Amino acid sequence: MSITIGINGFGPVGKSALFAALADPSFTVTAVVDASVCAAYIAYVIEQEYPRRNPAGTPIRVTDTRKDQIVLNDTQVIYVSAAQDPQLSLWKQYGARYVLECTGLYTTRSRSWGHVTGGAAGVFIAAASADINTVMASSALERLSASLPVCAAGTPIGAAVAPVLDALAKVMEVERVNYTALYGTQPQHPIGAKSEDSRDWRQARLQSYANCAMASSRDNGAETVCALLPHLAGHVSAGAFQVPVLQGCAIDLVVYTKEAMSADVVASAFAHSMVDSESTASVCIANRPMISVDCIGNSRVMLDVASSSSSTDGKVHRMVLWVDVECYYAAVLLSLVKQVHAIHTPPGP
């Protein structure tokens, strides 16, 4: 049986999570909850954007749209609710076993507990949290189990950097880390998406690309990296800037190691660690120079080997990472759901 999930919040992360789940036969989305969008707008976005996000996937057709539900391919029903309080989200009634909390509002245990009250067996916060364990795919099973029924995936940038550092730490002693992330402007929640007038919907989607100014951002992910990799606490320095690109994120990562290593050794060690670690699904190596458009639609962090280098003493290593933040982060959330579901589901005979 597929894993049933509900999505709270239909912003950029919630939308990407919906598309990723629709493309993965392991999942069935049963409900989307957001007070600022209507069912007709969600159906419109699925029809317009899903085919471009998943051109090789199974076609998805919206065959019926009502005030409180969308029907896909005549069989799958997605309930749509405007409930603003998690306690009013009837996840059990909707058949959602797990909830992706994508609003950025309910990021503490007490504020997100309403999802559990509403019937969710597990809640995955798509943000950093002040009092909930931050976990990733390679987190120890004990840490993941101890976090349930609510866990956090951290910020998207931190969630992208941490698996790379985790893999490197398995084969070398990392003393210090510096990185700078450049990523596209994060859109505000769409205005007009609640309207029943379809003429407002195009403007709601265009809002994503309205801001073309470069600006510094506090969302550099350093706290998430340190939460996921405690041995690096106090040794991570990070910066982030929003730049006028539609999608794609470049991360200029500099790693300082205790022992000298050549660039070739670092690259081979990194590749070896990827094979042996649980990060395999989240990181891959690209052997050609890349630009932001090359990573769009890819759910993995891409290490640009052609743009990476090492210092003459072999103790400073610069790596360039490319990632489609929304696509990658949605994959991270679904990967965590699968792991938790495996914990909840006893193995068969």
From TrEMBL:
NAD(+) binds at residue 34. InterPro entries: GlycerAld/Erythrose_P_DH, GlycerAld_3-P_DH_cat, GlycerAld_3-P_DH_NAD(P)-bd, NAD(P)-bd_dom_sf. Keywords: NAD, Nucleotide-binding, Oxidoreductase. It comes from the Eukaryota. Residues 3-151 form the Glyceraldehyde 3-phosphate dehydrogenase NAD(P) binding domain. One of its GO terms (cellular component) is cytosol. GO terms for molecular function: glyceraldehyde-3-phosphate dehydrogenase (NAD+) (phosphorylating) activity; NAD binding. GO terms for biological process: glycolytic process. SUPFAM superfamilies: Glyceraldehyde-3-phosphate dehydrogenase-like, C-terminal domain (SSF55347), NAD(P)-binding Rossmann-fold domains (SSF51735). PANTHER family: DEHYDROGENASE, PUTATIVE-RELATED, GLYCERALDEHYDE 3-PHOSPHATE DEHYDROGENASE. This is Glyceraldehyde-3-phosphate dehydrogenase-like protein. It comes from Leishmania braziliensis.
